[in-house]
Amino acid sequence: MKKIEAIIRTMRFESVKNALEDAGYDSMTVTEVKGRGRQKGITQQWRGAEYVVDLIPKTKIEIVVADADVEKVVDIIAASAVTGQIGDGKIFIIPLEDAIRVRTRERGDTAL
């Protein structure tokens, strides 16, 4: 099993969620986060004044899948989240030792 964490543009979340659901991956955890990458934030103007926003709002999606599904899920997320601009996000793949469904105590892939 692997845990996939994707940090994407908030405006692309619905597209990613719908693509994952269409492919049969309904279970996910979603968190609104803030962060910055190499661009170190952005400069904006408001009422004639310039100010720097160094932590950009993003959406973090966490999904746990069987090893065999990792590349498929990564491809779905990457294809659905891309805009071609700096700040499209990152995808992290993390090994997961075990998963346990609380209600039934099922373990491993059956708990997913």
What does it look like?
The protein has a single domain (2-111), classed as 2-Layer Sandwich (Alpha-Beta Plaits). 20% of the residues lie in helices and 37% in strands. It has helices spanning 13-22, 70-81, and strands spanning 2-8, 29-35, 42-46, 49-53, 56-65, 89-95. The chain has a 4-stranded antiparallel β-sheet with strand order 2-5-1-6, covered by helices on one side. The longest helix is centred in the last third of the chain and has 12 residues, at 70-81. The protein starts with a strand and ends in a 17-residue tail after the last strand. The model has no long low-confidence stretch (mean pLDDT 92). Belongs to the P(II) protein family. This is P-II family nitrogen regulator. It holds the Pfam family P-II.
What pattern of helices and strands is seen along the backbone?
Answer: EHEEEEHE
Distance between the termini: 9 Å
Number of domains: 1
* Uncertain parts: none
Could you write a compact summary of the structure shown?
This protein is of the alpha+beta class. It has helices at 13-22, 70-81; strands spanning 2-8, 29-35, 42-46, 49-53, 56-65, 89-95.
